[in-house]
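User: Okay, second chain of the day. Same drill as before: sequence in, structure tokens out.
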Amino acid sequence: MPSANDIRKGQVIKYNGAPHLVMETQHRTPGNLRAFVQVKMRNLQYGKSLDQRFSSSDALEVLPTERKTLEFSYSAGDTFAFMDPETYETIELGADLIGDAKNYLTANGKVEVLYVDGNPLTIDLPTSVALKVTESAEGIKGDTASNVQKPATMETGLVVQVPLFIKEGEIIKVNTADGTYMGRA
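Assistant: Same drill. Structure tokens below.
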């Protein structure tokens, strides 16, 4: 097993029986004390971040990881089907793994899935996606004195605040981090 000195950003380690993604590491040697490694990591099961201090000689278990780019195919109830573009294999993921990412999934949309020990653990969306507006109220003509916005429902059911000039049927770019309008696609 590698020591704490060998841990790098992006690796997945087993800590307290759960997989944790290493987000940042710092090796420190304070004055006349022993060296230690300060690790900022995120629990991949619960999403909580924590800072942990390891002795530089502590042995840590590094889990084998793999990242795959998959294309979204369809959803049926709480199951979301993705296709591996290299092998054309269909992979089904549960709603608990997908979470709020379901609001940004469209047909043939690409996502990156992190596999740890052969099991899918997290899903990463692109920074923005193009979504079609399915429902939006008409803007009032002349109401342009300030940055006035209205709610619009996307094809996935997500409600986004958009400017008054956006109409039904238009395709807009939406930020996947916070669900905000970015512009027309």
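The helical segments are 95-98.

User: Thanks, on to the next one.
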